[in-house]
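Collaborator request, handled under Task 6.
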Amino acid sequence: MSVAPHLHLPPTDRVLSSRTGWTRAHWEATADRMLDALTPYATPGFAQYRLPGRGSWSGVVSDGLEGFARSFLLAACRIAGAGGAVDPALTERYAAGLAAGTDPSSGEAWPRLTDCSQQMVEAASVAVALHETRPWIWDRLDAGVQERVVDWFSGFVGGRTWDNNWRLFQVVSEQFLASVGAPYRASDIEEGLDRIEDWYVGDGWYTDGDGRNFDYYIGWAMHLYPLLWARIAGPGGDGGRAAAYRQRLGRFLEDYPYFFGADGSPVHQGRSLSYRFAALAPVWMGALAGCTPLAPGLTRRLASGTLRHFVERGVPDERGLLPLGWYDTFLPSTQPYSGPASPYWASKGFLGLLLPADHEVWTARELPLPVEESDTYTALPAPGWLLHGTRHDGIVRLVNHGSDHNPPAPGAADIEAGTDPDLGAGEDDPHYAKLAYTTATAPESAPHALARTIDGHLALLAPDGTPSRRRRIHPLRCEDRVAASWSAARLPGDDRAYRIATTSVLHGPWEVRVHRVEAPEGAVVREGGHAVAHTESPFASSGPDWALARTAEGLTSAVVALYGWDGGPDGAAVARDVESNAYGPHSAIPYLRSAPRPGGRSVHVSLVVLSRDRVRPEALRTAVRVRVDGDAVVLTFLDGRTVEA
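C-alpha cells returned to the collaborator:
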C-alpha cells in the first residue's frame, strides 16, 4: 500500500529502516499534519476544538475540551521533542487555549471538574502536556492565567473518580498541582496508587478495575500513567514506587510485540479501538523510563510499523482528521462516551518524540517483529489468552479464555451452591465475548449482527433461532498451546443456565476447539469462525461439514467439523452481512450447525482457520484424529503430536 497523497511525508530510508522505511521525520510530519488539520475547528480563543462527527453523551462543550486536551498532548510531544524549536504558532495556540478555557467570561470556558466527570479524563492530558512543555508554555503564562489553571485543576482535590483507570487521572493531575506549588491532597495520590495494586495480577498485567478487564487500557493507561506521574514527581519524589512500575512494564513488554502483525496491525480486541496507535504508548514509555527489554531497533520497527499501517489505510483522513472507527468511520465499534475528538487519545502513540533525535531508538537499524522471524505461540495466563502468529502470512490471532469486561464473578463455592454464575454480568460485548480476535479481522459489531452473534461464538439456539450469549468467562487453563474456560448459556423462556466449556488447542495456523456442551432437548449447537470483511462481497463456499469465506485479497476464514456435529445438509454454511464490520462493508462468516440435540451433555470438536494461504477444508478434515470417550477427548495431529483436550 502507498501513503495517501494528502499526507506529505519525507522519502523513506531503507538503510536505517529496512522494514518500514520510516524515520523520526515521518513521525514529525504526521504529527504536524494532524495538528494543523485541527485549526479550522478551533473556537476563537483556541480553548476548544469542535470537530465534525457524532457527539458524545457528555455534550458539545465537553467534546470541545476533549479536542483541546488530547491534541495538546500531541502538541506537547512535538514541542518538547524539538526543544521548543517548532512553529511559534503551535505553542501560541495552546497557550491561548489555556487562557480562554479557564476564563469564565471567554464564551468558551471549560466545564468545572466535578466528581466522575469527563473533564477528569481530559485534565490528565492537560496536566501531562503542561509538565512536558513547562519551559515553553507554563513558565511563560502570566500569573493570572496560571492561577486560573490551578483553580480549574483544584476540582480534583478530594474529588471522586470512577474506580478503574480513572483513579490515575486524579493522581497525575494532583501531582501537577504539587509540582507548581499549588494546594493538593497527598492522600488522593497515595490512595489512587494504592488502589492499582489491587488490580495487579502478575506477569506485567493489571486488570482495569475489579473483574477481568483486559484490553489495551492496560498499556495505554494502567502502565502509562504511573510512570507519567513519576516523571512529574521527579527523582526522589516517587516514594520508591516507580521502580515497581518500571519492572512491571518491562515484564509486560516482553510479550507485547506478539500482539502485532507483520503489517503493523494490533490485534483488534477491546473497547476504545478508535484510539488506534495509542496502543504504542507502553512501547515508547518503556524506552522513556529506561525499562524496556526490547532492542531499540525493535521498538522503532514496532511503532513505525503500526503508525504506517494506519497511514497507508487513510488515517488521518483527507482532512487530516482521525475519524471515529478503525480505518474509516465506523460507529458500531465505538462507545457512547466517544465524541468526535476521542480518537485523539492516539496522541499517546507519539510519546516517542519526547526521546531526543540522537537516542538509539531513532538511530538504530530496525529489527524484525517476532512474527516476521518465525511462527509464535505465547501463553498469557494472567488475562487467559493464547497468541499465535504465523510467519508466512504475518497474522497474529488471540484466543480468548479470560477477558469479558464484567464485574467479578461469584466464587466457585457459591456457584456450586446455586448462585447464578452470571450474577452482575452485563450484556455480552463483541469486543470481549468472542473466542478469538486477530490482526486481520474485526468482530461483527453492528446491532443487527449482534442479534445473530455468529462469528467467534459457540451458541445454543432456541427453537425460534435466538442464540445464547457468552457473558462472563470463567478461566480453567492457559499454558503452552492450550487454554480453556467455561460460560453459562441461557435461552428465552428457560430459567436454567447451561454450561458450555471450551478448550482451544493451537497447532500451526489452526485452532482446534473442543466444546463440552450442556443443552435442553431440541436445542441446536452453532459455531462461527472468524468474520472476514472487504469492500467487495467475499467469496463463500460450503460442503459436508465445512464452510469457507474468502476476501478479494485472499484472506480466508474456514471452519471444519471434526466430531459431534452431524448437521446433515444444513450443517455448514456462510452467513453474510453488510455495514457490520470495521474492516469493510461486506462481511461473511463460515459456521457449523448441529441437528437438534436430545438434551443433556454432548461433545463437539471443530477446526478453525484464518489464513492468507489457500485453504482446502476437505483435506483439513483428515488433519486431526479425534478420539472421544465420554468427556475425555484426545487429539492426534499428523506430525504425531497428541493432546488431551
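The cover message to the collaborator said: "DSSP finds 16 helices and 22 strands in the chain. The chain has a mean pLDDT of 97. Please let us know whether this matches your experimental observations."
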